[in-house]
Amino acid sequence: MTFAATRPGAAPVPPGGAPNGTPGGRPSRALTAVYAAGAVTALGTQMTMLALPWLVLETTGSATQAGLVFAAQVLPMALLGFVGGEVIQRLGARRTMVVSDLARAPVVALVPLLQTLGALSPAALVMIVAALGALAVPYHAAQRVLAMELLSPHARSLARANSALEGVQHGSAFAGPALAGVLIPLMGTTSVIWLDAATFAFSGLLLLRFVPAGSGGAKGSAAGPRGLWAGVRHLCGDWFLSRAMLSTVVFGLMLRTLMITMPVLAFVRFEGDARVGGLLIAVLGAGGLVGSVAAYVLAARVAPVRLACTALVCVALPLWTLLVPVPAGVLVVAVGLSSAAAPLANAPLMGLLTARLPDGFGPKVLQAVVTISTLAGPLGFLAAGAVLDRAGVEATLWGVAALATFGSGNLILALRRLQATGNLD
């Protein structure tokens, strides 16, 4: 059995050209609109990630209140994450994205509006931010479901689409806060938040204009599984998907531990040199962006299993360098290489996962993947802090390297077994 045959309902070949999702085909106008809408929305969201707490600090001077703003935006994913699959299944992926964008635009606009009127209390701000978080819950999974339905089921094409979506997230996380940092002194904090509201409105209108109304199960799907936990049940019942999710959780724990450990490593090993700490953290984001671009190029040229296995080795192996007393430059290169390899592994893995799903299972399963991946983050931060306090930085680095090696080895073995069952390319 081939992966390409496991997902029915793929887009037909357009007249006079290759299918939207074939490795050599250009993205269709609808698929380009999905990428562009995701980029605009993500950029605005990342700008607001700085602007909202900055507004709190300007108006109250309270770091505690600023922390509450961050927590209020993340909490809905933990509480409502699995509901997102139900929303996508009922509304369809295109309508879910449009509703999410067009609903978030006025909600974001409430912040500068109430601030101008002198009516923005801390409690009101937390409620607004929590509403934004709730409206964002199904968005990322809906992006992938919609992209999947606009593509052919070829695993390489799906890998390329996932690398594009991941590149959008990495690029926005890198550029959004920096752009907000430049614009806040020039325009003012409230003006930057108005700009974020405009990005949501633009994204929703872009999807309405360029993505056909019948795309993404616009009338909802009756074929998919029922129940909030249907996606999790499917993940647990499929041997390959369950092993992939185990590694996803392990990598989530590892990455958050690595992020916290980097400044501590610089402080302990390099006599408190903040420049080293800044470089080590910055290269995590920069590596992810470079890796996403490389994945987009290589996904069409390299077999998914080969690309994923090679990248997984490159995720784990450089992290063992952190245990050795080497110059700071070597550590920066090692962390950057590992960070760049992560999207190179993730793109083909998500492509293989997506192609493996039966018809109608995409919304629930992809939302479960997004939710589980998100929940691994806070657990990693909590675990990392405890390990650093009790065992020290060297023991924590051993744990980081061991987690990365286990996660990579588990997936490589699963991919090799999967490859032995049929032609995946």
TrEMBL record:
Primary site of residence: membrane
Pfam families named in the record: MFS_1
Subcellular location: Cell membrane
Compositionally biased residues, Low complexity: 1-10
Domain of life, source organism: Bacteria
InterPro entries the record matches: MFS, MFS_trans_sf
Gene3D superfamilies with a match to the protein in the record: MFS general substrate transporter like domains (1.20.1250.20)
Keywords: Cell membrane, Membrane, Transmembrane, Transmembrane helix
Region of interest (Disordered), ranges: 1-25
Membrane-topology annotation of the record: Multi-pass membrane protein
Transmembrane segments: 33-56, 68-88, 109-137, 249-270, 276-298, 365-384, 396-415
Protein name: MFS transporter
